[in-house]
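Title: Prediction job returns without error message
Component: structure pipeline
Severity: low
Priority: P3
Assignee: unassigned

Description:
Job completed but the reporter wants confirmation the result is attached to the right record. Sequence as submitted:
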Amino acid sequence: MDSSTKSSLWLEICRSREDWDEFLEICGREFVHSSLAQRYLPELVKRKQLMPEYFRYIYEKLYSDERAILSILKTDRGEDGKNLANAKIIIGWIFRCNFTTRPVDTSKMFEIYSKGTEILLKRDQWVVEHIHEPIKKAADNMGLLPIFPGRIAVRSEYKKTKIMTDYTHEAAFLMMKELETRNGSTKRGYLLYWVIIDTLSGARKLMSSWGLTEVAHLHYDFKPGLKCCENPTVKEEKDVSCHFVFVQRSMASSLRSYFQQRSSL
């Protein structure tokens, strides 16, 4: 096992569809109250039904067949300290390293929540056009391979712990080792970038504490009345249109020119 062990916790690269399914189940449950869901899916009952299907959809569209690397932190103990019959995933980090996409049937998503699905898919396309494509262009011009941490999901019972901050760097290091194994020796370096929409949770400060620098502050104004998170009247994520792009500090000055500082539909 390619793992890093610390007491009853260990990191490893996901190798099985079963682990992927467990992680996607966590995503479908834990993202119901995320910034993504609050902004684009106002009907709580329907979004509880849609989110699991949405994550199955993006797995098939973006991640399956080793187009992404999933680092997972597992434990073999329950909250009561007793050994579990089967180890469970506490948190997972998805890193996209292959940006090819596949067509996926979305009919079930539209059956569950038609308007919400339409809004989500349009938003995803906006992110491709305004963030992923400029980064890909920059990476190509610099002779680098882009890597995007597409999702981080934590079981709810561990969200108030420091699990994410304690293990993210180690998870990224494990991902890089896996990428080198898959790609073999390459003279091309990597361009790691993050997209943040959790504007009211302190995520921007967290990025800065990890040594990352903001290179773009973009706005997706998909409906009237949305505001910048820096507007002092903003109280909830559903009222915000901001998306932030962070990269390693050494890359920041070279990348800023690839973004317009404000974008809309």
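Comment from assignee: result matches the submitted record. The helical segments are 17-30, 35-40, 44-63, 107-112, 114-142, 163-183, 203-209, 252-255.
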